[in-house]
């Protein structure tokens, strides 16, 4: 039996600002924009609609994103942390943690916020994660 994650939902104040963040910072494309059961929905991701992605959904009026008490909302693995951070910087996003590295694994990482304050950890896995 194979199980994969399809989508993660992020609540947003401004769908267009969120879409720009994901497109400019991570190269995510818009896979679907419309309504589902009467609710606006923007599906973005790095690949196809049947691959893992994000559903960006507007917050209810006056709503606030869920606070994670310092824990990340999302962890993303990238091939090149420096290139990703450069893309984010060009979009006006700077890390609030890192970039840093783990001496044991060789993983490199940084923490950024999206326009709604979701905490995102961006990780370039080190050689210890390579199964070869």
TrEMBL record:
Residues in VOC domain copies: 4-125
Pfam families xref list: Glyoxalase
Alphabetized InterPro entries for the sequence: Glyas_Bleomycin-R_OHBP_Dase (IPR029068), Glyas_Fos-R_dOase_dom (IPR004360), VOC_core (IPR037523)
Residue ranges of coiled coil: none
Alphabetical list of SUPFAM superfamilies matching this protein: Glyoxalase/Bleomycin resistance protein/Dihydroxybiphenyl dioxygenase (SSF54593)
Identification of the protein by name: VOC family protein
Annotated organism of origin: Cellulosimicrobium sp. ES-005
Taxonomic placement: Bacteria, Bacillati, Actinomycetota, Actinomycetes, Micrococcales
């Amino acid at each position: 039996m194979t199980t994969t994650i399809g989508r993660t939902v992020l609540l947003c104040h401004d769908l267009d600002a969120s879409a720009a963040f994901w497109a400019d910072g991570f190269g995510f494309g818009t896979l679907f924009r419309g309504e589902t059961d009467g609710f606006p929905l923007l599906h973005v991701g790095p690949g196809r609609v049947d691959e893992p992605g994000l559903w960006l959904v507007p917050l209810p009026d006056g709503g606030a994103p869920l606070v994670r008490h310092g824990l990340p909302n999302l962890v993303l693995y990238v091939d090149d942390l420096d290139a990703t951070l450069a893309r984010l910087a060009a979009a006006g996003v700077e890390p609030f943690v890192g970039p840093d590295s783990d001496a044991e694994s060789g993983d490199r990482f940084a923490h950024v916020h999206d326009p709604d304050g979701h905490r995102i950890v961006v990780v370039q896995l080190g050689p210890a994660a390579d199964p070869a």
